[in-house]
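pasting for the record
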Amino acid sequence: MRSFSSGALFIVLALAAICLGLIVYFATLPEPGSKFSEFYLLNSSGQPCDYPARVSAGQPFTVTVGVVNREAAPTAYTVRIVSGGREIKTLESGTLEKDKKWERRTGITLDEIGPEKKVEFYLFIAGQERPYIERPLALTLDVTSP
């Protein structure tokens, strides 16, 4: 009986690893024409970073909410902004054509003073009861007295 040399074994294992990597790569690629929506927040300077960490109660802070329609058809969106378990604001995009972007700069005012108050942004496709994305975008803020 003849055994593999260590060089041949190395080549077989390397080819197996490459094949496995290709399988994983192609299995995780989105399908051509796949449908999704982009949902994001921008700070008051229009950047996706450096969001406010501390705000004064009763004083508005500003963020920009954005959606890009990558669905296969025109789609209307609703964004619900929630804090402390209650809805504090609702934004409507109107109908967006495929590959069109909607952004809305909005002021948000929190009244409840305390550390680590969460503001959650839920994206809905208009007319649906469940959020399009299960986990909301969120900001955690320390709310101080004015």
